[in-house]
Design goal:
CATH architecture: 3-Layer(aba) Sandwich
Helix content: 25-40%
Shape: globular
Order of helices and strands: EHEHEHEHHHEHEHH
Largest sheet: 6 strands, parallel
Radius of gyration: 18 Å
Number of domains: 1
Structural class: alpha/beta
CATH class: Alpha Beta
Strand content: 5-15%
CATH superfamily: Alpha/Beta hydrolase fold, catalytic domain
Number of helices: 9
Number of strands: 6
Strand order of the largest sheet: 2-1-3-4-5-6
């Protein structure tokens, strides 16, 4: 059980958090975060349509619309929006287009500036060897690359249309560079980066910090592209301190 860093924290202390997974991710990637903040704030982790087989919907626009529909349908007027990898990219778009809906951003290994993607040399039916090679780019600790995890991902990619959808979505993200518009985001931003991230390396985190007016940057040692999975305790503690700095005073007194 975690110990709160402040006394008297309650469900009304923070805005609800909505957390967005990456292109090969899923809502359970945020389970540790949901458990950690249980009792402090509402946490939502919607499933995103990253592999919709409709060709016209294999792009960022479709996913942004899906998240906005989720916020509206859940009655969430204003949120702290978080995202890993492509999920962070989606969060940035929402903050740019709907600034009154976003109280703050939490980005972990976000795309939007640079990302070593998956759009080249992707086999029609990825085998175990190819998948393990790609997963070594995601995790610093290879012990996390279990046979069970590899098999789960392999099974999800047995449909050639699904593979094509992932590739098209990744290509859409790679074309969409936000470098020239990030300065428009005026919400507080927490950048939580794996110090050993090989997909969005630390130089990307530094550029995000330089271009986002209210950004804070924290690195986690011996951690790759998915800190919510590889170092969830450190990630959650960093997020908690960020929430306390920016949102607890709004409810004090």
């Amino acid at each position: 059980m975690r110990q709160d860093l402040s006394e008297g924290a309650g469900a009304s202390d923070y805005p609800p958090m909505v957390l967005l997974h990456g292109i090969f991710g899923k809502p359970v990637d945020w389970d540790e975060c949901e458990r950690y903040f249980d009792g402090s704030c509402e946490v939502f982790a919607p499933r995103l349509p990253m592999a919709n087989i409709n060709r016209a919907q294999r792009n960022l626009e479709h996913v942004v619309g899906h998240v906005m529909d989720f916020l509206d349908g859940s009655g969430i007027d204003r949120t702290v929006l978080g995202g890993n990898s492509l999920g962070g990219h989606i969060a940035l778009h929402i903050a740019l287009r709907y600034p009154l809906r976003v109280a703050g951003l939490i980005l972990a290994g976000s795309s939007g500036l640079f990302e070593r993607g998956y759009t080249r040399n992707v086999p029609h039916r990825p085998d175990t060897t190819w998948l393990k090679t790609k997963m070594r780019e995601i995790f610093f600790d290879e012990a996390l690359i279990t046979e069970k995890l590899v098999e789960e991902i392999r099974e999800s990619l047995t449909d050639r249309r699904r593979v094509a959808a992932y590739v098209r979505m990744a290509a859409s993200a790679k074309r969409d560079n936000l470098r020239d518009v990030l300065h428009q985001i005026r919400a507080p931003v927490l950048l939580v980066w794996g110090a050993n991230d090989a997909i969005t390396p630390p130089s990307v985190a530094y550029e995000f910090k330089e271009r986002l007016p209210l950004a804070e940057l924290e690195f986690i040692d011996e951690c790759g592209h998915a800190p919510t999975l590889e170092k969830p305790h450190e990630f959650n503690r960093i997020v908690e301190r960020f929430l306390q700095r920016h949102f607890v005073p709004l409810h004090a007194g």
